[in-house]
Specification:
The complex is a heterodimer of chains A (768) and B (131).
Chain A: H1 7-22, H2 29-39, H3 45-56, E1 60-66, E2 72-76, E3 82-84, E4 87-96, E5 104-109, H4 134-139, E6 142-146, E7 157-166, E8 170-181, H5 193-202, E9 210-217, E10 219-227, E11 235-242, E12 247-248, E13 265-268, E14 272-276, E15 278-285, E16 290-291, E17 293-299, E18 305-309, E19 311-312, E20 321-328, H6 345-354, E21 359-364, H7 369-372, E22 380-381, H8 390-395, E23 412-419, E24 430-433, H9 454-462, E25 466-469, H10 499-502, E26 510-513, H11 518-530, E27 536-539, E28 555-559, H12 569-579, E29 582-585, E30 589-596, E31 610-621, E32 654-661, E33 664-672, E34 674-686, E35 690-696, E36 700-702, E37 705-707, H13 718-735, H14 741-764
Parallel strand pairs in A: 1-4, 3-9, 10-18, 20-21, 21-23, 25-26, 26-27
Antiparallel strand pairs in A: 1-2, 4-7, 5-8, 6-7, 8-9, 10-14, 11-12, 11-13, 11-15, 15-17, 16-19, 20-28, 22-23, 23-24, 24-25, 28-29, 29-36, 30-31, 31-34, 32-33, 32-35, 35-36, 35-37
Chain B: E1 20-24, E2 30-34, E3 48-56, E4 61-68, E5 74-77, E6 81-84, E7 88-97, E8 101-111, E9 123-130
Parallel strand pairs in B: 1-3
Antiparallel strand pairs in B: 1-2, 3-7, 4-6, 4-8, 5-7, 8-9
Classes of the chains: A alpha+beta (768), B mainly beta (131).
């Protein structure tokens, strides 16, 4: 029999090595480099196969062999079975599968029952309300799981990853076994494929489990003494890695409030992290208003605490600007494979505080709607950052007590609704902020809601809610970075779709963005502004759907006379959005006190055409040189969305501040992004009623100041009116098929009314 | 034309005879998984069609593209599938192996161009065998 081809072997090895990296337990860099070189070397296939197996052998904990009945027998590999108490370690598994069985691998061990819901990324117990399982977890000292993808491809040899947890320290004897659940040849009506595999394997007379003397390093709770520069206690995002790049706590399994999709965890001053003795790199940050603090520390027998002083570079609240993220979620998307529940307000407030946000709008949406809506109260809340399921967490080694901080009252949550996964979602996802009632009249199920957006918006506005569109740019890209442009988009996605109908009818207040290409996001906003509408734009994250990093990746700063706090915090913030100055972006640059002729009002009427003096205070911070590229990448590339790094001019530390009049850049000035406040000023000629804003793309954009000349409304672009009119046609073409037949007549009438308004405004425009 | 789909029930496993199932969640994120359906053995030099069931919970319209890193000896015919916004659509692509062999190919599915999936969930690896 000829040797199997080598390409699938390398493909599976590369996947397993990447998985170890993703789990925060990477192979040594030298081994990864050698693997990469070997994959592309000119050696014979046989020699490459031999060298690959030799290279990876020291990291293989478990050798698995699957016979023709699909029974997996295990023997210890060459990797030292070293674990860490109350933590997870991940290793390679080599699977010999000569009969090419396609099956799903599961890990078993002695002494642990199947009480963890492995289908859930939240690592919740399978029966959420049955905490009686906790003693069983506490009594089990070893847990194991095969990392996804756990399916055997059917190739003769492939590599997988196994993660092991130990509760205890010292030398512990234990066994590991693997079951291969074959869905393709499953004939039992009473047992699942996994149950059949376990049943058959357990009745084997031969030894099928591998035995180990696990060497489990003791871990202790180390206190994190996190401080603001002024000494106050606070919540922050803390990342701890050892010299091999392993993350603590391991990402192989994290319990809320720690998320497996984060490198960091959120901890308050005085809270704990479990660490074995060793040397660690610790980084700490509290959102983009802070520079990352990096330190190296040794944890030994005498270590009780790690002192960390945060490094704040800008304080917008000190200037009267208060941050908010109008779009975060407590369930769905990255949180869970079983997204119907999500996390509690106590976890969400921890994340919001850890990013230094004043407000986080936790939006209930389809996958988690019926569970999460219980947290809606119609008021802003600022609960203690307690742990979810403390018994369960204690059983996993999280025995620390949540600590209050000096800054807790400066962050609040408001539970509201995103109309996503509802019948009208084809028309764009609505964000409804400041609701007093979260159930559309006459509905008991999501399916009962209207199948287009305008009725929902009008119902929400009757509650004095601020309403608008989420992730505005999705489906609105037209293949150009030109801004403004006049290409009608296809409206293929879930961006600001029906906004072109709702704004002229007075039913939509804003759109949210700061996530994608500016041309896709800003074009529709600029056109609405240029025909005289006062539409707002907000920065959002859509955490953890669009962005996983944390709340406040996209954020909005609103100028208020006093901090938003108490049950009416969101209402105060909304009032500020409607009446006062605000800006949005990534929080790495800020525009304070934007003024026309010294006036910071949103409306600045002019008696006659002529020049105006535009001024503002700008602050931005970039590291002196661009960050080094991540491992495996030739050059640093900033994240996909908005990030000040993408505004860096060449390799300098400067960025460009632009003044925009009716969508067109009319002046600009470079500023050094060194964190200092700098005054910018421009003389801008105003020939007609106009809107004016400042921006640093892709980092910050202000709301416009409206300049009506001689009392005439803004009618600055005939082409914008035409674009909006034509967009309504395109929208109807693409979306009307999703509107229920009994709602189509009303929808068509609204579309017609919107187009009539655009035609009227087009006729009133004096310039093209 | 009205193709109003149930708004809930998203994110669950897809009942299909196709080897691959693509789901687009309400936030337009793409998730692809191998179903239980077998791929079968290819004949060298002949095109083999692989069916894909698409469940679209986001009403997304426009192209659903499939991308793959090149693998020696493997030819891929990956037509862009046009999403109509309907809740369920059937798509397909073709594969051909030049000679008797086994290859491991990684496929990434993308809707809306810029939007990928959650984590690596929009990516799947397939073992293709020709005898």
């Amino acid at each position: 029999m000829s040797e199997p081809p080598v390409q699938p072997l390398f493909a599976s090895a590369a996947r397993a090595v990447r998985k170890l990296q993703d789990l925060g337990d990477p192979l040594p860099a030298e081994a990864v480099t050698q693997l990469s070189k070997l994959e592309s070397s000119s050696l014979s296939d046989a020699e490459r196969r031999t060298q690959l197996e030799t290279l990876l052998r020291p990291f293989v904990l478990l050798d698995v062999s699957i016979d023709e009945q699909g029974i997996a027998s295990c023997t210890p590999g060459a990797a030292p079975p070293r674990l860490v108490q109350h933590g997870w370690r991940s290793f390679l598994v080599r699977v010999a599968n000569p009969h090419r069985i396609e099956a799903n691998l599961s890990a078993g061990n002695s002494g642990v029952y199947g009480v963890i819901d492995y289908q859930s990324h939240s690592a919740r117990i399978a029966l959420h309300d049955t905490l009686t399982v906790v003693p069983r977890i506490k009594d089990a000292w070893l847990d194991a799981k095969i990392a996804v993808p756990s399916e055997l491809s059917g190739f003769e040899v492939e590599y997988k990853v196994i993660s092991l947890y130990t509760r205890d320290d010292g030398i512990q004897q234990g066994g590991l076994s693997v079951f291969a659940a074959d869905e393709h040849n499953h004939h039992s009506l009473s047992r699942s494929p996994l149950a059949v595999a376990g049943f058959r394997t357990n009745f084997e007379l031969r030894e099928y489990a591998a035995s180990f003397d696990f060497d489990c390093a003791p871990a202790r709770e180390i206190r994190l003494d996190i401080r603001e520069p002024d000494g106050r206690s606070c919540m922050a995002a803390i990342t701890v890695q050892d010299g091999q790049g392993r993350s603590y706590p391991s990402k192989a399994m994290r319990l809320a409030p720690d998320m497996f999709f984060h490198e960091h965890v959120y901890r308050a001053t005085g809270e704990m992290i479990l660490l074995p003795e060793g040397r660690y790199r610790v980084s700490a940050i509290r959102g983009p208003e802070y520079r990352p603090v990096l330190l190296e520390t040794e944890v030994d027998a005498g270590t009780e605490a790690i002192p960390i002083t945060l490094d704040r570079w800008v304080d917008p609240a000190g200037r009267g600007y208060y941050s908010g993220d109008p779009h975060i979620h407590a369930g769905g998307c990255s949180h869970y494979n079983v997204p119907s529940e999500g996390v509690t307000p106590e976890t969400m407030i921890r994340h919001v505080r850890g990013e230094g946000l004043w407000l986080g709008s936790v939006l209930t949406w389809a996958p988690c709607y019926y569970h999460q809506k219980q947290f809606f109260s119609g008021e802003s809340i600022s609960p203690p950052a307690d742990l979810e399921d403390p018994l369960m967490q204690a059983a996993q080694g999280m025995t620390w007590t949540p600590q209050p901080t000096d800054r807790d009252a400066e962050s609040a949550l408001r539970y509201d609704v995103e109309v996503s996964g509802f019948p009208s979602s084809h028309s764009g996802h609505l964000i409804l902020l400041g609701l007093t009632d979260q159930d559309y009249p006459g509905t008991s199920l999501i399916e009962d809601w209207p199948s287009w957006n305008l009725p929902v918006l009008r119902w929400a506005k009757e509650q004095n809610a601020l309403v608008g569109y989420a992730h505005c740019g999705v489906g609105l890209g037209v293949g150009t970075e030109e801004l403004p442009n006049y290409i009608v988009p296809s409206f293929q996605g879930i961006g600001s779709n029906e906004i072109v109908v709702d704004v002229p009818l007075g039913a939509a207040d804003f759109q949210c963005g700061g996530q994608f290409a500016p041309a896709a996001e800003l074009n529709i906003w600029y056109h609405l502004l240029s025909v005289g509408f006062r539409t707002l734009m907000l920065g959002e994250t859509d955490y953890p759907c669009m962005y996983d990093e944390g709340p406040g990746v996209g954020r909005t700063y609103v100028r208020l006379t006093e901090p938003p706090s108490g049950p009416q915090a969101i209402e105060a913030w909304i009032t500020g959005l409607r009446e006062s100055a605000s800006y949005f972006g990534d929080g790495r640059s800020h525009v304070f006190d934007l003024a026309v002729d010294g006036d910071v009002s949103r409306e600045h009427p002019l008696d006659t055409p002529g020049p105006v003096r535009v001024s503002a205070t700008v602050a931005a911070w970039l590291p002196e040189v661009p960050p080094p590229p991540p491992a495996g990448r030739p050059v640093y590339s900033a994240p996909v969305g908005w990030h000040l790094e993408r505004a860096r001019i060449g390799t300098s530390r400067s960025v460009l501040v632009e003044a925009v009049l009716n969508g067109v850049v009319v002046a600009s000035q470079e500023v050094v992004a060194d964190g200092t406040e700098q005054e910018v000023a421009f003389d801008v000629p105003v020939e007609e009623s106009s809107w004016l804003a400042l921006r640093i793309l892709r980092s910050v954009h202000t709301q416009p100041i409206f300049l009506e000349v001689g009392g005439r409304p803004i009618r600055a672009s005939r082409r914008s009116a035409q674009w909006l009119h034509d967009s309504v046609d395109q929208l109807w073409k693409v979306k009307s098929g999703f509107i229920r037949e009994d709602e189509q007549a009303a929808a068509r009438q609204a579309y017609d009314e919107a187009q009539a308004i655009y035609r009227s405004r087009r006729a009133e425009c004096e310039t093209d | 034309m009205t193709h109003q789909a149930p708004a809930i029930g998203c994110c669950g496993p897809v009942d299909t005879d196709a080897p691959l199932a693509v789901t687009i969640n309400p936030e337009a994120r793409v998730n692809v998984t191998r179903s239980g359906a077998p791929i079968g053995t290819l004949k060298p030099g002949e095109w083999h069609t692989l069916a894909v069931t698409v469940v679209n919970d986001a009403f997304v319209t426009g192209p659903l593209a499939v991308e793959a890193e090149p693998v020696s000896g493997l030819q891929l015919d990956l037509p862009v599938h046009e999403l109509t916004g309907e809740h369920r659509q059937e798509a397909a692509f073709r594969v051909r192996l030049d000679a008797p062999t086994v290859v491991d190919v990684t496929l990434t599915f993308r809707a809306l161009g810029a939007l990928g999936g959650l984590a690596n969930h929009s990516t799947v690896n397939l073992l293709l065998s020709a005898r």
